[in-house]
Structures are given as structure tokens and as C-alpha cells.
């Protein structure tokens, strides 16, 4: 078993999860705060899109945006010197785009479940909207947010179709765990694939445990016996 | 048994002296069916012979690779599983003039599950199968060839009605291996890679155009020299022998 | 300091139509359950948006439906203590209190500590709301709003969950503290004692509208309208008819009362249940009673009776201390003289 | 454009969403109610697994269970006469397995966010656990549950890798929308693919709107002006 | 009907150690904020689990730490009205009330309607808790628990959010209703009037332990211990020293009191603030006052004074009605005779 896919996947999944986490929460906040139901539903549709299309197709569309001949891709290349396609950045990009709807949707549900009265209480106490968000809404929405985080991380870790499309499948560079698993399965090397699957499972167990730990810790206030 | 690669007059051991190879990493984009050959043997061998050149490889279906190259992926050498994709890229002017080599040939075979007792021993017999696994002719080269065979036999319409169109070769193989499908059409090299299938027949001579694996250097490459060295290596007898070991034949 | 409020808000089966004005005096609001007290405060704080009207604080327009002004709650600098406390469950008592404080860390800590001890919560600082008792939660909510030091303090039944000892202690200290504080205070309460003690002015609210407004003491001593009398808890009220310059007939009780200076628009008479005296013989403003019930209360009896001389069936209540009642209860017939009564419009 | 993939996909996504919905909620309830943190994390890991593996690989494993050669598959075939692979049932099976973690996780987060006091109140009122669950927890967790439903539906609608592996890609039978989209994109028929993409987007918009509508309706109790 | 409770529960900085027993009489619990009243009820209802102890209802063991018995709340058939109501926000008032009812649809509707009107919520049935006022919510919670008809009713400050008029109306009707009902009732309240009116028995709780238990009336009339006196609101309490058979010295006030039958273990004396009388000359059990403050209350004045003859600094309180005070306040020196006082252990 080769260690590089594991490292690459870990790096990709962690980085993309951090990005998705904040991006998703931010989007959720924006959308949840929208006045017009129609606009909200529309934006909601757009943001959920990466989930309803086959990842390969999503990857293809990403390629159509970030390809070096396309405006965005050309801009990035010429002005920032960044070439997305076939780079490690691309694995992150793909993972972020694919896992984004999970985070966004979960966070939105969780934020909507927060007692409006408490938000109002924060306002009458002169707390800024930002402070209310970070000190009141987020902690109270933690279980939902955490489950969004878990979903996003898991999805980023397992991301395959779009990654292969945008980042390629280059050993030591963009070959992530799922690509390795897939490659082994495709090449009929079942034993090798089991090894990678075991690693994937192991990583997700670790992350899930951590998440569970933090969620439990973060919501200790509901635990009546906390100060015992 | 080291034969100098074709197109290279000087013996390989003198090469660094006469023309030092620039330190370079090149990226090979190859059809998924070539993965084992490259990863297990050819690339390690090449890198041993040319320590200055490192080869990265990405494998996928040729159609995807085509799209990626068209969108500017940093590919230096492209090897597809059919001429169609190579031509398409070439027509867009993305392949270095005159660099296309029709290197390998693969064969189209009819496969059955290992334990199959079905009375199928030729491509015409495939209609006895209840479900047929073939690659999607629209996107999977093996599927295109299968379609061609069946069209020449005049039974494509009947086959299509029973067909499940795989989006890649792995699917087609797995379907047959797991007996989801009763028969399927893949490359000989694919059939060889899976022990749960057996070959029932090869495509009859003349029923299908040659299954060519062309090789080309992508025009945008900045490492022309290294890429050329690699292509030359692949054309060497030594390399071809390895390809043959994996079921290909030199064209 | 001045606060002017004139707002309307309509729900399907309730509408609020309130005008209030205060100028630095503490204002109490009394009203039955569901009469719109909390809603009024919420509109002032910006928690609810009125349908129309205007709210002006110190000349600054906070809300004006005509000019589409609606300052957000954060900028109103009005503290509202929610009736259900609305403590942040994810913060300890300390954090809850400190959350609105805009001080440096050290001073903040000091201030929070002061408030904790002021509200008898010394050891509760590290507890989460779920770990606090009802009364402790209420005190944290009160401390939190006071820490914030807003221009206007809106308190929605701030002491309802406290035992009477603690309540009276806090009343005293609360008043001391408020003396240092230069803002408006509006306090909603169901406790007459509280309103009497804390607020100089009193607004009565009934069914969404203000039906009485004035100096607390005056209203308690001389209610002028039916609503005022009801609100201060006058138990005996009857519609009346002016018979002459100095005589009215209380229709429910079939009773004629004599007094000076009957206002021309007098429509009701009210007799506080303490304002009876047991006398030995009939006379003016005296009823011959027919006892209906005697209910024992802590510091006395509540005598429920009717006018024996008429067949009107409306009952009257009389609060008397135990000693006196035990001495005189055997009198028969029992005459009750009305010492004082209210003439209400 | 061919209508059959649309119909098949609609059928698959709806049926699988209903199954996933109840299955996910049920699992969430079970796991959320578990006493031991360790067992919970373990089960959690297992249930999240389909998300971290490439769908094709998941499909492959499903094939290893339900394939006609394999015990389960053979049992189903011989005793019940049901052949899972290459049937419409398989598209549902694949969609359920792939979308399950989304529903499960979202529901768990949402249920954990429900005020424990209210559950206790239900108990002291003699309500059975089942009644408490359906009448109290579910409605209060609605935003989170709904977002889980949206995610699961979207994922089921977009499911591609595992479906192709287990159900095949048989026109008029198991060819779902994503397979059609993929085929068109892969063949470079961008125009045709846009048609399908438009349909996918359209369907998800409809579903999102419905979901939003029901969520809003279902949580009208938080809307202070509802009776206006 | 009988309920026996003997439980312990420890938190880091609070521990509850309570034993109670009731036999069909209604029991009131009085105690300061944070003394453990709600916690006790929660343990009985099964909302919290005690660390150790036993709860037995009608001979049926509900909880027994030794034998690992812990019947789930559903099967205890004990209704607990949460101090913060815990109404289901997703159900209307009607639905909240009906949720514990196990009747056919039609009867259920009828019963819910009855309860709505009993609690003056006729038009509120279709509203969600967020659309109800604080007092309306409290009434819904009360109606809900009563609808459930449990064997034991545990009420945690059931009337605290109601105005006094409504409160006294509901008291009356509540008592009528409870008469028809054959269960135990335990009611926690901060209102002495309420406890006095509703519950025959009274338990006093202080800092997690029961410090007094008895007939409500007896406790109010003759508190026997320091805690009892404090709890019924006796404002003047001083440690004392027995001087002789019939004389004690109240140390805080430097005052000697004479009375018969002083118990041998008498440690404190308490004087209810109403039990003074203005007299014209010194005498036994009479103080010469030095006024400290006069606080006006609704129905009288609260006179704060010291013993003028001694230099002890502890103050005393005297509640007097306005009339009498206004008549006599100019007396100088002012003598107050103590009519009655409590001898406390
Ligand atoms: N969102 C709403 N929708 C419909 N009616 C409402 C809404 N909010 C409040 N009400 C009604 O408005 C009336 C006044 O409510 P408010 O909370 O102001 O009462 P309150 O005077 O504070 O009573 P309490 O003393 O019981 O707290 C109530 O009858 C209530 O039912
Ligand atoms: N989960 C907990 N963790 C720590 N301390 C707790 C917890 N729950 C309650 N307490 C403490 O136990 C004490 C008793 O609480 P309880 O709620 O029984 O008080 P109470 O008598 O009902 O008071 P109130 O009249 O204010 O409602 C309080 O001091 C409280 O802080
Ligand atoms: Mg209110
Ligand atoms: Mg309590």
C-alpha cells in the first residue's frame, strides 16, 4: 500500500472541510436571513445543485469554468499564476464544491431551529449581529452544524468523480484515497483496495469520534449534571 | 537484453555524456486499461533508465482525458484507447505535429462469467444471453468497437435491446464477473485482468477496425525533450515486450 | 429623559392601541393577564414591530410608521427583560450577565461579580441556566439587563418567581441602585405592593388600551374610574344612579349612600373591602348584612355577605382582622357601616 | 431528449427518498437514544460509511452482497424469485444506500437539538415514547429533518456510480437521469446534456420549493404573526 | 392515597435531602429561591433521578435506589407542572391540553373546551404558545396537567404569572375542582396567601432539607421554630435568653418579654410586625421607640424603629394601618406594646 493517497486525501479533506465549513455556514446564514421566500428558494436550488448532478458532470462543469482557456481559469493563470486543473488545488476545489451543499443545508436547518427569542434577546442587549451569530446561534445549532461538518468531511474524503475530472488521477499529486480505491478495484486488485478501504474507514472513524467528542463537549450545557 | 530505444542511435549508457537529459517530470495521461502496465512495469523501468526524468501518470477513460487536455490540463504525453479521442484533440491543434504514433493494438473479445454454462462461443451467439454488458458506444471506446462488430454482424439492434451500457470498462467487467450480465464485450487486456471472467470468442477478423492505442505528445508541453525521450522509450522493443505481456500487441 | 409611545398593533383577535409618555419617573404597568403589557414593552424594545405609530426616546425617533423609520433593537439602547427570561442556555450565569457589557476584561469581571452578589447569586456564576432554579434564572435575567445599562429599562414581571423575603430585599436594593441610574424604568407587574413601592407613575391597561394613567399613590388612594378601581383590587363595585346632590343608589346592592360632592358623571360606586366597620345600629351608609360565607385568610377573615334588607343578590366582601371578628361575629343582626367609598366614572 | 430516464429517475428518487427518510430517522432515533458513547460512535461510523467511499466502489460492494452468485443475492433469487441486480429495484437499493447517511446524520443532529425538557414534559404527561417522538420531537426537529430530506432526495436523484454498478445502464429500465447526463457529457453532446441537466435542475427546484413550503408550514408556530 | 418520599441528590454545590409523607391532604411547599423545591418535585415526577432513596405511591414503589427500581415517568402517573411551563411550541393551546387525554375524540374536545373556559382561555384554543401571553401560557400548562388527571398533581408555582383578580378566581375554582379529584396535590409557591388557602399541610424547605412540617394553619398561627417563623414572613426575630420561668431577654433588641409557659429549649423570639399596639405609657412588653423610617405601603405604613432605651442597634418592623398611624404618630415618646409573640426553638 502506498501512503501518498492517504496523505493527499487527509490534506484535501481537512483543507476542504475547513473551507466548506465556513463557506457553508456563511451561506446558510445569508440564506436563512433572506426576506423573500422566492429568492431564498431560488438560491437554495442553486446551492444544492452540486448534489443532484453526477459528480463527474459537476467536475466537467468545473473544468468548463476553471479550464485555462476559460475566462476564470485564464484570469487565475495570467494574473495569479495559479493553474487549477490537475493540481492539488483542484482536488480541494472539487471537494469543496461537492461537499458544500451538505454543509450548507445542514447548517441552515440547524440555524433555523434556534429559538428566535434568544436572538431577539441578544439584540435588545446591544449585541451585534455578528456576536449574536457566533456566541448564540452557532453554539445552539451545534448538533446540526456538527452533523453538517461530519457529512461534509465524509463527502470530501470520499469525493471521486469530480476530483478525477478536474484534478486528474496523478500518483503522489492528485491521487486521493477514493481514486486509489477505485483504481485498485478497477484494476481488479481487490486486496490492495481493501487496504485502502480500511484506511478510509479508519480515518472516518477517527474524525467521527472527534466530532462526537466536540459536540458533546460543546453542548455540555444541556447536560444537567455537568457541574456534578 | 537491453536494446537501445528506436530512433536513438547512441547506446543508452553513453547518452548522459553526449546529451545530458534535463531534470524533468512529465505527465502521462493514459487510458485506464493501461494502468497496470504502466504503473507496475514501464514507468519504474523508464525511471531507472533515465533517472533525471520522472513520470507522473493519470489514468481515466479516454473521453475524460480528452476533455481534460482540451481544458488545458498539463499533460505532456497522451495515450488513448482509441484513435477517435486522439484525432479529436489533434484536430483542435493540441498535439505536436507528426508526433502521433499508432503504437499498440488491442483485441475485442466476448467474455462470459467464469462458471458460465451458456452455449455461447461466438459473437453471434451473444443473443442467447439475457443481458449483455457493453461499454457505452458514445463514450467508452470498447463500446464503440463492440457496436461496430455487432453492426457488421447485423445484430446491433437486437444486442442494444438487451444491453446495459457501461460507463467504463470496470463496470462491464464487474457485471459479467458478478453474473449480473450473462455476457459482455471488452478488450482482451481487460479480460486478462479479471479472473472471474473467461474469454469465449475474439472478434472475427474484419468485423471490426483495428483497436489502435495511439500515442502522442501534447503540443503545449514545456518538456518536449523529456516527453520525446519517454515516447521513444515506449516505442522500444523492451517496452513493447512488456505491453505484450499484458495482452496488447504491437501495431 | 423622555419616552413617548403611541402605537397600534393588530392580531386576529387582539389589538393593541397604546399611548404612553414618561419623563424620567418610573412607570408601572398593571393589567390583567393577556391585556397587552408584554406586547407594549416588546414594541418599545424593538422585539415586535408595531403596525403603525411612533416611538420617540429623548427626541430621537425610534419608530415611525409614517416615515418608515424602524431603528434596530441594538441601536435603541433599550433593555428588555423577557418575561420568560430568554437566558442563553449555552452561557453560564456569569457569561449571560457579562454578554452585554462593553468593558475591559478585568472591569467586566468585577462588575459581573458585583451584580452576582447584589442578586444573591454569589456561588451561581459558573452554572448554566439549566442548572439554576426558576428564581435564580430570573435574577440572572435581571442582572443581565441591569449590567447592560440601557437608557430605558423595561422589566416584565422581574420578581414574580422570588420568595417574599428575597423579593422585598431586592426591592430595596433595586431602588437604591435605580437611584444612581439616570434612565427610564418601566415595570410590568401583577403585584400591587411592588408597583406601589417602585413606581411613581402608574398606567393601567385593559384589553390592549390604556384605561388609566396617573400618580401611583393617587390612583391607589382615590381611583377615579371603574378600571382604576378594578385594577387596584377594589372588590365591591356596583353601577349607581345619582338620586340627588348628595345621594346615590348602588343598584347591585340596593344600597343608598350619602356623601358630598358627587361628580355629575358618576356611574359606579366602589367600596374597598377594608372600608367597613361593624356598628351596633342602623344608620346612614350602613348595611344590615346577611352572611354568605366566612373565608379564613392569613391575617384575617374575608366576610362574604349580602344586603339583608333588599333582595338584590349581589354579594359584598369585607376584610376584617381576626381579633375584631372573633369579638363581634355573634352580633345579630350585623350592621356594617361604610367608612369611605369611591365615586367612579 | 428521451423521457424515460426522467421518469425512471423520478420514480427511483421518490421511492428511495421515502425509504431513506424513515430509515434514516429511525436510525437517528436509535443512535441518539444509545446509552454508550462508544457504541454510538461505532454505529455512527458504520452508518456514515457509504458516504466516504466512491459510489462506484460502494456499488461494487453492493454487488458483492446482492450479486446472483453471492449468498444474499442467491437467496433472494432462489427463494423469493427476486433478482436485484440490473433491475429497477437495484436503482432504488443503490440510491437508498448512498443517500442514507445524509438523512441519518441530519436527522440525528436535528433530534439532538430538541429541548430535553419538552421530552420530559411529554413523559410526565403519560405520552408514550412513540407519541413523544412523532408529536414533539419530529415537529420540533423539522427544519433539520427537512434539510436531511432535501439532501437525501438530491443525492438519490443525482446518484450515479453505485447505480450504474448495481443496476446497470439499461435504456427504459435502469437508465436514470444522471446516467443519461453522463453519457451525453462523455460523448461530448453538450447540447443534449444541457437538456437533461435542465430537467434535473427543474426537478430539484420543485422538490426544494415543496420542502421549503412544508417546512415553513410545519413550523408556522414560530411565526409570531401566523394568526394575523 | 399516600405518597412517601425519602430521597437524596447531590450536585457539586447543592445537595437535596428530603423526606416527605402525605396522605391525601394537599401539601404546600414553601422555601426560598434555590432551596430545592422544584428539584424535589422533579425527582418525584421522574424528571430527575435521585442519587439514592425511595419513592412510594399508594404502596407502589416508584423509585428505590437499593433495589434498582426506577419506574419511568409515563408509568408513574404523576403530573408535574413545570415552573417554566414546558408547553409544546408546535401545538396550539387546545392540542397542548388534549395531548395527555386518553379519551375518544368527541369527549376529548368537550373536555378541552371545559378546561379552556375554566381557565379563562375561551378564545385562545387555537393559538400557539408563542402567541400567548405569559399568564395565558401558565394557565394552559395548568389546564394540561389537570386534563391528564394523574394520581399526584405536582404544581410548581402554578399561579405566579397571573394578576391578583384572576388568581383569586382561579384559586376558588381550582379548589372546587380539586374537591372532585381524588389524588394527592403538592403545590410549590412563594405566596403565603396561596399556600394558606389551598393546602392543609405545609412543608418548609431550606437549603435542600425539610425544616418544618405540619398543619398550615398551626404553622401560620404558632410557628414553633426559627425556620417556620422566617418562612411565614415574621419580620422581627431575635435570639433570646431565658431569664426566669416567665421572662426572656431578646438579645438583639435588648428587650425583656414576659409570658407564661416558656419552653425550656426556647432560643428565639419572634414578633409579627402586626402584633404591636401604640399605647400611652410604658409597661410590661412595651418598647419605647426611636423611629428609623416610615415606609408607605398600600394599606398602611411600615414603621422601622429601634429600642430607644438600649443601644442595641437592631431594627424592628411594625405594620400599621394609615388611619391609626396618622392619628397617633405625633405621640412622643412613642410606646409600642407587644400584643403577642412567638417562642421559637
Ligand atoms: N403573535 C401573536 N398572535 C396572536 N395573538 C397574540 C400574539 N402575541 C400576543 N397575542 C395576544 O395579545 C394579548 C396580549 O399579550 P401580552 O403578552 O402583551 O399579555 P400580557 O399583558 O403581558 O399578559 P401576561 O400578564 O399574561 O403576561 C394576549 O391575549 C395574546 O394572546
Ligand atoms: N443540574 C444542576 N446542577 C447543579 N445545581 C443544580 C442543578 N439543578 C438545580 N441545581 C441547584 O439546586 C438548587 C435547588 O434548585 P431548585 O430548582 O429545586 O430550586 P427551587 O427551590 O425550585 O427555587 P425557585 O423558587 O427559585 O424555583 C439551586 O440552588 C440550583 O442552583
Ligand atoms: Mg406578559
Ligand atoms: Mg423552582
Provide a descriptive summary of the structure in words.
Chain A has 228 residues and is mostly helical. Helices cover 77% and strands 0% of the residues of chain A. In chain A, helix 3 runs parallel beside helix 9. The N terminus of chain B is likely disordered. In chain B, the strands form two sheets. Chain B has a six-stranded mixed β-sheet with strand order 2-1-3-10-4-11. A five-stranded mixed β-sheet of chain B has the order 7-6-8-5-9, with helices on both faces. Chain B is 37% helix and 24% strand. With 345 residues, chain C is of the alpha+beta class. Chain C is built from ten helices and 21 strands. In chain C, strand 18 and strand 19 form a beta hairpin. The model of chain C has no long low-confidence stretch (mean pLDDT 88). Chains A and D meet through helix 2, helix 3, helix 5, helix 8 and helix 10 of A and helix 2, helix 3, helix 5, helix 8 and helix 10 of D. The site of one magnesium ion has 4 residues of chain C, from helix 1.
Could you write a compact summary of the structure shown?
The complex is a heteropentamer, with two copies of chain A (228 residues), one copy of chain B (251 residues) and two copies of chain C (345 residues). Chain A is an all-alpha fold and 228 residues long.
Q: Give the integer mean of the pLDDT values of chain B.
A: 85
How do the SSEs of chain B run, as a string of H and E?
A: HEHEHEHEEEHHEHEHEEHHE
Total count of helical runs of at least 4 residues of chain A: 11
Beta-strand proportion of chain B: 15-25%
Portion of residues in beta strands of chain A equals under 5%
Largest sheet descriptor of chain B:
6 strands, mixed
Q: Low-confidence segments of chain A, ≥5 residues, pLDDT <50?
A: 224-228
Work out the number of β strands of chain A: 0
Low-confidence stretches of chain B: 1-18
Oligomer: heteropentamer
Count the DSSP helices of chain B. 10
Q: What is the count of β-strands of chain B?
A: 11
What are the defining features of this structure?
heteropentamer; A: 228 residues; mainly alpha; 11 helices; disordered C terminus; C: 345 residues; alpha+beta; 6-stranded mixed beta sheet; 5-stranded antiparallel beta sheet; 10 helices; 21 strands; globular; binds adenosine-5'-triphosphate; binds magnesium ion
